[in-house]
Hints:
This protein is of the alpha+beta class. It folds into 2 domains: 76-183 and 315-354, Nuclear Transport Factor 2, Chain: A (Roll), CATH 3.10.450; 185-313, Glucose Permease (Domain IIA), CATH 2.70.70. Helices cover 18% and strands 25% of the residues. Strands 7, 8, 10, 11, 12, 13, 15 and 16 form an 8-stranded antiparallel sheet that branches. It has a 5-stranded antiparallel sheet with strand order 1-2-3-4-5, sandwiched between helices. Strands 6-17 form a two-stranded antiparallel ribbon. It is globular and about 85 Å long.
Amino acid sequence: MTVKMPVLGEPTRRRSSRGWVVVLLLAVAAGTFLYRRRKAPPPPPQVPVVAPAPVASPPASTIADSSPTPSTVPPPAAGPRFASVRIDGPLETALVGVAGSETGPALAQVVKRVLVWWMAVPGDLRRGDALDVVYEPRPGEEPRVSAVRIQSSKAGRTFEAYRFQPSGAPFARFYTPDGEDLERRLVPSPLDTWEQITSLIKDGRRHKGVDFKTPVGTPVKATFDGTITRKTWNFRGNGNSLEVTETGSPHRRALFLHLSELPRSEKVGTHVTKGEVIAQSGNTGHSFAPHLHYQLMDPSDRVLDPFEVQPTEKIFLPPGDRPALTAEIVRLKTLMTASVAGTAPGTPGLSRGR
């Protein structure tokens, strides 16, 4: 038997030709790279970049005055503004000219609410009447008017009123310099308290009633003895509403519109007495803000002006509030001086227009 002897080391292997192929491909790639590098144009020389020297601004006296474009005009600063106009046409046109198309129309409406206590608007306005207003625009709300002053050529005098909130009072109201409440008060009144009367029969709006701006839930009172003759008719327009017909002559009818929800116990035929709380104010029906619409009608359905057929009275500030009112008037009058009001319309701060 032949025994195979162990073999020291690895047996000799035949070389493969694949290694030579790899070497050849690497050599070709290297040659192609060197050839392309010699043919490519040299890069342009690097030129150092030098920043331009700063140009000095000319002196302020040599800069031409110019107005910025609307896109660069900064928004007006918050705070009061002063508008001074001469009446030379519609009141709204004059105020839009100085306050702008966004604020002007609403500003005209608020100013009219003040003017109607002195004159018929627009009937008593005369060309050349001077109107001064301190106001503050409020996005999404009516502008807040703090002072109104008008030189009336028809009346031959100057009227003025200033917004002031007495101590402990729920609302600010307009007062004359002697402390008299600008608005007359109906006797009896459908409300004990309200912020402002926003519509009158004689304000030119052809509105059939008196609108009292007041929060939802303000107690509403009967203005004479009578009987409830209608309840919540034409809800889409009037909202929750009551009609009270006067007991005895002259048989007037009082309409209370846009009320809060009325209790079921309140029915047609229910008797009410003067001064009795019959409902609460609301914001129902065709109403854009909480208020009470109070309307008087005669038996022939003719609209009556409550301020002409009902007694009225004037209210004065208590003596303890007079010094604070005087101080507020002095502050507002400083905003109505020519030196302060010289700012151009549309710029931050106060504005003036003639």
